[in-house]
Amino acid sequence: MDPLHLKKLNAERRARRAAILVTDLGDGRDRMVREGDTVAGELGEAIVKAFRSGNSGSVVAEGRNFFLNVHLPQPRLVVIGAVHISQALAPMAQIAGYPLEIIDPRTAFATDDRFPDVTLFAEWPEDVLKAHPLDGYTALAALTHDPKIDDFALKAALDADCFYIGALGSRKTHAKRVERLMAMGAPSEGIEKIHAPIGLDIGSASPGEIAVAVLAEVIRAFRSRGTARLPKGQAA
Fold first, then answer.
1. Per mean pLDDT, which range of 2-6, 32-36, 148-152 is the poorest?
2. Which InterPro entries does this one have (predicted)?
């Protein structure tokens, strides 16, 4: 590996940005491709698929053999609200490989007893997200149903271009939320990325079922990065 490419790759990994080291198996030359870089032809198509799947491996493109060494940041799930849905969601997310953090300034809810073995911040999102900023490999789920807690986090997620943003509440509730976010300076095309009501439409009713729907929607959003958003309930 070219030492310069290794240095660039390590810099991307420290910044939580995705990159692929592309090696031509015929002549041994390699190059680094960042997510979003344009690569033409069959190789470009293979690179896009590799970024979505996160799987390294060899491919044949334009009659040549390449090895794609994929480096994706660990996706994380930030949940606003230490609520019943969050209690069900936490163990599911860990099993699925999405480390979960919960933020809720309401100290009666954000307790270690209710959320054992979970990264928990009993503080306002404004304070937590300054020290632990969101990024493109973060999913954010706003579950408090309280604008004083949810709205700042949602605006921060839009600004950070999180790969998934979801919010609890009815369509009527979300319409009022949209007005508040636009007043905060969020563009309408960005607000359209918010999944509200949150979760895949599977008829969920209980906190556990809603948690399943939310996690499924998060996973679908992660695995379909770079594609048009699918209608609720439609498989990728």
1. 2-6
2. MoCofactor_Util/Proc, XdhC_Rossmann_dom
Give me the numbers of helices (H) and strands (E) for the chain, helices first please. 8, 9
CA atoms within 13 A on the CB side of 107: 1
Pairwise CA distance, residues 75 & 71, whole Å: 12
Let me know if 79 is exposed, middle or buried by CB neighbors in 10 A (0-12, 13-18, 19+): buried
Look at residue 5 in the predicted model and tell me its pLDDT.
80
CA torsion, ordered 78, 84, 87, 93, to nearest 10 deg:
-50
Please give the CATH number for the structural domain made up of 76-223.
3.40.50.720
Q: What angle do CA 163, 35, 229 make, to 5 degrees?
A: 35
Q: What is the C-alpha separation between 42 and 51, in angstroms, rounded? A: 14
Query: What is the pLDDT averaged over residues 63-69?
Result: 96
Amino acid present at 209: E
Q: Is the pLDDT of residue 25 over 90?
A: yes
In angstroms, the Cα distances linking 79 to 175, 179, 209 are 21, 22, 16
Sketch the domain layout of the chain as residue ranges.
3-71, 76-223
Distance of CA 10 to the CA centre of its chain: 21
Upper half-sphere CA count for residue 53 (Cβ side, 13 Å): 11
pTM (two decimals): 0.85
Residues 33, 6 contacting (CB under 8 angstroms): no
Backbone φ and ψ for 101, nearest 5 degrees, come out as -125, 140
